[in-house]
Here is the input.
Amino acid sequence: MNHIDNLSINAIRVLSADAIQKAKSGHPGLPLGAAPIAYELWAHHMNHNPANPDWRNRDRFILSGGHGSMLLYSLLYLYRYGDMTLDDLKEFRQLDSKTPGHPEYRHTVGVEATTGPLGAGMGMAVGMAIAEKHLASVFNKEGYPVIDHYTYALGGDGCMMEGISSEAFSLAGTLGLSKLIILYDSNNISIEGSTDIAFTEDVQKRMESFGFQTLEVADGNDIDAVGKAIEEAKAEIDKPTIIIVNNIIGYGCLEKQGTSSAHGDPLGEENVAATRANLNWEYSEAFYVPQEIYNHYNELAEKGQAKENRWLELLEEYKDEYPEDYELLEQYYSDIDAEKIYNDEEFWKRPEKKAVSTRVSSGVILNRIKELLPNFVGGAADVAPSTRTYMKGVGDFSKEDYSGRNFHFGIREMAMGAIGNGLMLHGGLKPFVSCFFVFSDYMKPMMRLSALMQLPVTYVLTHDSIGVGEDGPTHHPIEQANMLRSIPNFVTFRPADKMETAVGYYYSLTNGKSPVALLLSRQDLPELENTSKEALKGGYILVDSKKETPDMILIASGSEVSLVLEAKNVLMQKGIDTRVVSMPSTELFEMQAAEYKESVLPDNVRKRVAVEALSADYWYRYVGLDGKVIGMTTYGESAPANQLFDYFGFTTEHIVEVAESIMK
Here is the structure.
């Protein structure tokens, strides 16, 4: 290691230690230990341009061990990403700073993914690597590799323990994602102490069994060995690679290195000073970096600009040689033309059958979207025939054919969610993922990250209620809708028929910032006469009362909307004039102006009944103290769906009975 490399690595270490100490909060262990790995990668192997963090063909770097965020912030500062300043490092973990406790996408320039939940970054890296393979197969021509980059993810023992990593790596090996390179900071320490207390497996053999090339570096401070391993990984063209780097957590702090206390506690003022001395860092002033280090990083950044310039020249030649492909490539990376979808008659066409399940309607819509959006891709967790999410005529993504648009995720819901995020983060693709609604429990942490990162991933979740029937309570979603409705910036949409299903897809494709879960029925539902694009408002008057002020309001979503329509007719015969409100999305309804919400649910109409074959609790916000909710307060039972709806009171007769009791 030469002098300037050593100084550059120690600059990362010292800045990280100083920021964590000033905040009196953070995780110094990873930045101190992994600084040589990250420096070698960023300085000598990774294609990136700080002057253009969004360069399409840049290599991606995901810090899966997001608790070590100061490693990333130090790199972003030294490379001059965005307008990151020394003051930003000094504000680490403080309110409104650009340097929050864990890296946040969209919040800090240069952060490729929000990480912190261990293993999530590994799954998102797999998604990015899939995106690279697919786009390369669609657009690259001989001599014109316009999509040609690597995806790197750095994580530690915790990332390797989490099950999501195994799910994602298993699929990555199956797919032969050769441009995925995992850097495993193996230091045998976690919060509770030595990993031997809970983690003694042979990671190398596990990764080999997944289909990875496995490489090992004996000493994480040996950047020549790290660099050699990275180049060997890049030379592998059939398999993804994991580089196991044996390392020392908290390296440089003799008092704490190699111990669990280095993981998540500031070093302390005395230890920070001692670390400086041990690293032969001759500057005692906190946050001080000598000019020669800044100059060195500036030179490295300029090399990144030169690499992008060469790529831009290649792209111009590609444009001249393949103008139609270039135009399509630009379309892939452009915003969706919302007007094109809104005005497409086929997209909104009602079914010929009088009754059809919304999962079947969804399948019809998906196959229309694939024609309108050539970069619309996705798949299911081994249930595409049941969720109706297979797109006809566009092939299957596989090791043999990366151009296919149907993805087979296997029974890996959590990794599927992370991969969906990775596909969206990469850019150029519009992904959907799918499984049975009840198994959103497995996927929820990644759905939450979608919302946090403002990624409009489409989640197609079918078998949406006790209408699942004979599979019984293990497969009946009850509380899951409330779970999803509680996630900020997440939209649930439970449509009543095909028209409302199309509305849900339209919003998901065009809103630009919120993930959407479409909750779709297994059982057939009637196509309703009055459903419309008004469903974009989340809740709207489906059939109004004859009176200007209704006697009562009936509110429902999904499969229960047709029931309240029937109940309205019966109640009218009994002299009770009702308004029926379809509420496919409470989140969208809450986004509307107060005047609109008042027009749909006027405060002076306090007699209300809400009906949904899911958990009852959420709906009390709309019926108040004077109203009632017909919903689930227990788990379901195993029986045919029609029997279950009768058993649990989701019938016209019971709705009428409850409504009459309120009127009395």
Q: What stands out?
A: Residues 69 and 563 are 52 Å apart (CA to CA). The mean pLDDT is 98.
